[in-house]
Design a protein that fits this description.
Elements (H helix, E strand, L loop, with lengths): L1 H15 L20 E8 L7 E8 L6 E8 L4 E10 L2 E6 L4 E3 L4 E4 L5 E5 L10 E8 L4 E9 L7 E2 L7
Parallel strand pairs: 1-10, 5-11
Antiparallel strand pairs: 1-2, 2-7, 2-8, 3-6, 3-9, 4-5, 4-8, 9-10
C-alpha cells in the first residue's frame, strides 16, 4: 500500500513540473514578415559629395497598412524620406513627416518631383549601370533590402528645404 502511495505522489509531482511552453516552432505564434513588391527601382547618377535620390513603385500586397519610417544605404550616411511640396511659389524637397504609409493592397510611387528616398553627401561616384543597395525600415520593426539600378536623369532639380523640428 505504501508503494502505491509513493507511485501516486511521484506521478503528481511529475505532472506539476511539466512545462507549458510550446515544444515546436509551429506552436509559437509569429508575426508575418512585411515584404513589399518593388517595381523598377532606380537611382539618379551623380558624383561623390552630391545629392541623389531613389525611385520605384512600392506595392503592399498584405492585409495591413505598412509605414516605411526610414531608409539606409552604404552610399550615404544621411538618408531621408522626402516629398516635393510648393513653398513660396517654388517646388522644394522636404523630409516627409511620418514616413511613407502604404495601405493594405495599395501602391505608392517614388518618382522625380514627388515622394523619393534622398541621399545627401554621396560617398562615391554613381555611374549608370551601378547597383545601389537600399534598406527600407518599417515602423514596428522589420526591414527590406532593395537593389536599384543607377540611371542618367537630368530632371527633378528641386531645391532642398530642411524642415526644422517644431515647425
Amino acid at each position: 500500500m505504501k508503494f502505491i502511495a509513493l507511485i501516486a505522489a511521484l506521478a503528481l509531482t511529475a505532472g506539476c513540473s511539466q512545462t507549458t511552453q510550446p515544444t515546436s516552432a509551429e506552436e509559437t505564434p509569429t508575426k508575418a514578415a512585411i515584404e513589399l513588391k518593388v517595381v523598377d527601382p532606380w537611382v539618379k547618377a551623380t558624383k561623390q559629395g552630391e545629392m541623389t535620390a531613389a525611385f520605384a513603385t512600392l506595392t503592399n500586397e498584405s492585409d495591413q497598412s505598412v509605414t516605411i519610417e526610414k531608409a539606409s544605404s552604404d552610399i550615404s550616411m544621411m538618408v531621408e524620406l522626402h516629398e516635393v511640396v510648393m513653398k513660396d511659389g517654388e517646388m522644394v524637397m522636404t523630409p516627409k513627416e511620418g514616413g511613407f504609409e502604404i495601405k493594405a493592397g495599395q501602391s505608392i510611387t517614388l518618382e522625380p518631383g514627388g515622394l523619393h528616398i534622398m541621399f545627401m553627401g554621396v560617398n562615391k561616384d554613381l555611374k549608370p549601370g551601378d547597383d545601389v543597395h537600399v534598406t527600407l525600415h518599417f515602423a514596428g520593426g522589420g526591414s527590406q533590402e532593395i537593389h536599384a539600378l543607377v540611371k542618367n536623369f537630368t530632371g527633378a532639380n528641386e531645391k532642398y528645404n530642411k524642415k526644422k523640428k517644431g515647425m
